[in-house]
């Protein structure tokens, strides 16, 4: 009979052997190689979030699973990078079974919250509150086949997008695209645009949170081929008009932080950049681009199908669990109310945008 032990360590204490085993377990699972569930992402978060931890499950001394999380007040846990990570969960070797609350008890956690739990996470699925659609673009058969299908399914959308690119070139100068830009100035420009977009739409500015800005900058400098940042920039007449910073594994690219210069908004530069990026990504071996959950009309136009992700939390009895319920249940109920009622959701978005404009005056 095997002996199981759970050891909690900081992400920086994972050695190269742990990284190798973690990735082998992920590969054997058959799940998409989403970079947010790679050990390098957890390590990067640990460098800017000192309360990030990893539970290492061992059987007879050998690692059979990894559970990354962040620790908060009263033992409340959250997914690593919660709020910016698009795929969450535990990495467990096939056949490893553990109760979610027992796992939390071993980590001295009273709760664990997630908002993008990966499908197939049987340990946590009983604790989900809502299933969300996460649109993706399949590129395994190449960009040409994809764009033919896009043109057949949405001919007007594709024609209009390409026409805007030609008009942009005529009126602003030659259009050029860089898939993997290394200029740190371009990244700063993107972050400035994105911050302005958050404020304009009344949303919380993620880049005003220092840890998120440092996380993105660190991933931009990283060179791990299994998980690294990719900055893509669209220029017209030598000037940046749209940019995107994403996270990639060898086969999956996550659409993460896109933004554009509003002075060029009539040309839909964000759509042009995404189309060019899909082409370059396919040539670079990317088979899947994950557009992330959350409603957006352009995602519906570009996607080939939806993956399923989940929102919810595991809660243990006790003080910390009660604190979590009091703090999160009303928020989750309000978000679900808005998602299920498109009319109020649109009205709420207009109010947030008006508040954002007033705040910027």
TrEMBL record:
A matching Pfam family: Acetyltransf_6
InterPro entries the record matches: Acyl_CoA_acyltransferase (IPR016181), BioF2-like_GNAT_dom (IPR038740)
Key words, A-Z: Acyltransferase, Transferase
Domain BioF2-like acetyltransferase: 159-300
EC number assigned by the record: 2.3.1.-
Keyword field contains Transferase: yes
Domain of life of the native organism: Bacteria
GO molecular function, one term: acyltransferase activity
The protein's name: GNAT family N-acetyltransferase
């Amino acid at each position: 009979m095997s002996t199981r032990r759970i050891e909690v360590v900081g992400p920086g204490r994972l050695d190269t052997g742990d990284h190798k085993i973690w990735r082998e377990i992920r590969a054997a699972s058959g799940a998409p190689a989403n970079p947010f569930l790679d050990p390098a992402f957890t390590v990067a978060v640990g460098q800017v979030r000192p309360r990030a931890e990893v539970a290492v499950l061992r059987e007879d001394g050998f690692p059979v699973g990894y559970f990354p999380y962040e620790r908060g007040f009263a033992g409340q846990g959250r997914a690593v990078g919660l709020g910016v990570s698009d795929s969450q969960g535990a990495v467990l070797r096939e056949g490893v079974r553990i109760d979610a609350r027992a796992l939390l008890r071993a980590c001295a956690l009273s709760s664990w919250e997630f908002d993008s739990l990966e499908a197939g996470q049987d340990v946590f699925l009983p604790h989900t509150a809502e299933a969300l659609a996460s649109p993706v673009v399949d590129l395994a058969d190449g960009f040409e086949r994809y764009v033919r299908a896009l043109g057949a399914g949405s001919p007007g959308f594709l024609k209009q997008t390409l026409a805007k690119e030609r008009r942009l070139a005529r009126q602003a100068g030659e259009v050029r695209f860089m898939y993997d830009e290394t200029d740190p100035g371009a990244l700063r420009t993107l972050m400035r645009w994105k911050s302005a977009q958050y404020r304009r739409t009344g949303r919380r500015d993620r880049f005003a949170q220092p840890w998120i800005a440092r996380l993105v900058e660190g991933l931009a400098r990283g060179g791990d081929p299994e998980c690294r940042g990719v900055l893509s920039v669209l220029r017209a007449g030598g000037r940046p008009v749209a940019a995107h910073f994403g996270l990639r594994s060898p086969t999956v690219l996550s659409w993460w932080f896109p933004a554009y210069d509003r002075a060029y908004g009539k040309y839909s530069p964000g759509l042009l950049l995404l189309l060019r990026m899909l082409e370059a990504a396919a040539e670079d071996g990317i088979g899947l681009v994950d557009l992330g959950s959350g409603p957006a009309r352009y995602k519906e136009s570009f996607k080939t199908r939806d993956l399923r992700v989940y929102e919810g939390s595991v809660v243990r009895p006790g003080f910390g669990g009660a604190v979590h319920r009091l703090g999160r249940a009303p928020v989750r109920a309000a978000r679900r109310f808005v998602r299920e009622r498109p009319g109020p959701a649109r009205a709420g978005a207009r109010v947030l945008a008006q508040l954002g404009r007033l705040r910027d005056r």
